[in-house]
Design brief:
It is a single chain. Helix content is 6%, strand content 40%. The chain is mainly beta. It folds into two domains: 8-171, Cupredoxins -  blue copper proteins (Immunoglobulin-like); 180-224 and 259-399, Immunoglobulin-like (Sandwich). The radius of gyration is 22 Å and the shape is globular. The mean pLDDT is 93. Bound molecules: copper (II) ion. Copper (II) ion (CU) is lined by residues 44-45, 109, 152, 154, 159, 164.
Length: 399
Amino acid sequence: MAIKLIRRGVADDPAEALKFICPPAFSGGPIDPQPATRTLRRNLDVMIDLPLPPAVAARTRALKDKIRLWTIEDPDLPQDQGRTFPSPLIRTVQGDVVQATVGFQLDAHTIHWHGIEPTPLNDGVGHTSFEATSSFVYQFATNTAGTYFYHCHKNTVLHFEMGLYGGLIVDPLNPDPDSLNQAPYPTGGPGFASANVPGFPGFDPANFVVPYDVEAVWAVDSFDSIWHLLNHDAFMQKCDANDPMAAANFTNDGILNVFRPDVFLISGVVSVPASSPEVSPEIGANIQDPRVAINAKVNQTVLIRLLNADYLIHENILGLDSVAIAADGHPFGVPPLNRYSAPVRIPAGRPFRTTSARRYDLLVRTPAVPGIFPFRVKFIDWISGKVVHIARTVIKVQP
Ligand SMILES: [Cu+2]
């Protein structure tokens, strides 16, 4: 006998509709606490002014020589490491139960653990749960090794743009329990990634892990400098329990339907135009900053964790052959879902695209001879299809 499911729209459920518009505030937690295997702390939102190189500052729409960012601080690190953009990387181990104590310095925010799939009350999406004030302990399990990120999910379009995000990596165990290098691995390498890559140096087919020597995390983003002058609640619908849809609730100033980025970055490093303003598309100078440029040796394995932290489409071109071993925190061809996917080989020079919030984990084997190999990302306007900027960096392969 068929079971008839009745799914009501929010129009039939005024309380649910109102909650979506006016998420309740809550603090405390954790809800349904379990024994934690890892604890960490974060604070929202800590302001940083990111200085802009003169060539970038001169052409920003806001005409500013620095850009205001809101970040998520790690209060357990010295300030110069704990207050960064992107926000400090979180590393956990596959199988962890994590409790993250999150403080809020101004007003209400949330943290959404993107891709992790916690319980709804720990998922940090205000509209379907609550916004947190003062402090909340989020609890989640990190069961699948891969690349994730965390971000604020209040007035999301603005708060994510303002910089309230950071990377979240789930490391698989080292198959050698006697090794000195156990998960979580040092950022930058060496370590192990979940993968199914027969024939790749060091691949362990019993445990579906592959060792890497060097690791890079590339969070590719762009800013519209005008947005960075806005207030916390800009463009949010006002909360009116009696008449939520009244026109008067939509009078907040806001311009979030117009995104014209004028600052382009990889992992917080601004791409400086190398071409004159008349050249289109504008091409950035090679980024040499060690937070971005990769230094490896011949015959090594490099793992690149690529995140589209942007509202533009990215077309990525790597100057070395690579294998995409995972997307969005899910390794291809690795049990238990091994029947449904397989790694993808990407020959050097072949473009591949990412859209907002997508992650690719790319495995690169450096050649036997030294060289300098390019990485380019084209920032593509999703409406016009025009390339608005090309950021560049390099993989340096040394003897
Ligand atoms: Cu926020």
